[in-house]
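Structure representation:
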Amino acid sequence: IGDVGQNAWEEVDFQPAASSGGENYGWRLMEGTHCYEVGNCNQNGSLTLPILEYHHTLGCSVTGGYRYRGSAIPALQGMYVYGDYCHVRIWGALPNPVAGWDSVQLLLAPQAISSFGEDATGELYVVGHAATNGTLYRITEPTAQAGPEIAVSPGSLAFGAQLVAGGPTVPLNLSIRNVGTANLTITGVILGGSNPTPFGVIFDTGQGVLAAGQERTIALDFDPSQLGEHFAQLTILSNDPDEGATEVPLTGLGAVPPTSTVIHCLLNTSVVFAAAETLDAAVCPIVAPGDVTFLAGQRIALWEGISVGSGATFTAGIDPNLRYLTLPKAVVVEE
């Protein structure tokens, strides 16, 4: 379900076929997976968060589509095809076998995307919107372009949360492939945007010319020095006649580093774990001065290194073994 956002994030929600409906997708507590109203973001486990989201650096208004069930394009089988009205990007997404969904940009539409359509055989169509006339397009199997043609995958890199001054993230790879029939010349790779400093190119196979079918790999990481969300873009310049400058958005979140202070957690009774478990606020209520407290609208805490096995015991009273790791907006109750 394509769900248009407000000022920053667009999202796609999922409702199982067996659902009776009535899911709460979070507005206006949440915009995507992000708190929209500061001070009022207590989810209480009642919200159904999106399976996909993208920032307004990639578009401005999501247009929901269909899962492809046709036969003309085998590579799209089962893929959820959706787009953005403003930036005319069309993506395809599939469930990740481990968790979540993976999305990749497939193509750019010729006009603003007002809707998608599906025929009786499962083939998909794009409804274009223009000032004077709109056009109905059918999505077809691509053919090799007579000349160079760049294909970049994935269409964006999201590094997620990384501790400030905690060192760089695990690198993410970007593939640049020539899917045309003539040599593709890469004339520049530029890291720019609103805040490119935390992002870095750490590896580049560096080919300046890619023959038909050849690939160039670039690896980037994210090492924030400031809290909050960071946005940048990697621009790839080439001799592709239709796409001379390919932009790849980069996003990451700078999070609060771990504290070295031991935080007390007051247990009402002795706790013996019947199975392996990770401590959280439900297991360890936070009631004493000096404990970490989270108010409505603040992000959840992650406990640092407190995973316990079957039979582990924590004693009633103050247990000094508990330490904490916080994300932005955490508050420590003063003594």
Observations:
- Residues 258-271, 275-310, 314-335 have pLDDT under 50 and may be disordered.
